[in-house]
Amino acid sequence: MEVKGEPWQSGAAMTSRTEHDRLAVVDFGGQYAHLIATKIRRLRVRAEIRQPDDPLEAFRPYRGIVLSGSPALASAGEDADWNRAILDLDVPVLGLCFGHQEIAKHYGGRVEHCQREYGPARLRIVRPSPVFADVPRESTVWMSHGDTVVALGPGFVELATSQAAGDERTHRNAAIADERRRRYGFQFHPEVDDTEFGERMLANFALRICGCAPTWTMDRYVDDRIEAIRQQAGSTGVFLLASGGVDSTVCARLLAEALGPKQLHLLHVDNGLMRKDESRGVMRSLERLGVSKNLHFVDAADDFLAALRGLTDPEEKRKAIGQTYVDVFDREAERLGLGEMLLGQGTIYPDTIETGGTRRADVIKTHHNRVPVIERLIAEGRVIEPLRELYKTEVRELGRTLGLPEDLLERHPFPGPGLGIRLLGSDGELPPGFEATAGVARPALREILAPLGLQGDLLPVRSVGVKADLRSYELPVLVWGELEHGRLVEVATRVFQRIPGVNRAVLDLTGRGFRMARPTAAGVTRERLDLLREADAIVMGALERSGLMRSIWQCPTVALPLELDGRRGEFVVVRPVHSERAMTARPAELPAPVLDAIRGILHLPGVIGLGLDLTTKPPGTIEWE
Ligand code: XMP
Question: Model pTM?
Answer without folding.
Answer: 0.81
